[in-house]
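step: validate -> pass
step: tokenize input -> pass
step: predict -> running
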Amino acid sequence: MKRLFYPAIFHTAEEGGFYVTFPDLPECMTQGENISEAYEMAVDALGLALTSREESHETIPNATDPTEINVEKGEFTMVIEFDMLAYKKRVSGKAVKKTLSIPEWLNDAAKDAGINFSQVLQDGLKKQLQIG
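step: predict -> pass
step: emit ->
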């Protein structure tokens, strides 16, 4: 999985705080009462937009170069980092059943040793994929 970086435009809201838009993802908008909250909400909104596109088999756009974005008074651009794997870990704890085949002798030895097959497979996949 990959880390993605998208520019966001932070707009000063008349009532206070900020609302955030993404030039590359017009459906993605959020807000926050202060800069920290607006940033955190932007990360979540970006995650929802990107994973929704991925699940719908829609194109994930390339990020615009932040230096090419013109902003008006009361606005500024900030790059939002999004880690797809971390987001999916946080929002999807659903287990998926897998069927696999191993030699009978190995199955018997593992059962006799009380090995948790699911845990061994998860640990092995994480190691193979080099993810935590």
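step: describe -> The chain has a mean pLDDT of 90.
step: cleanup -> pass
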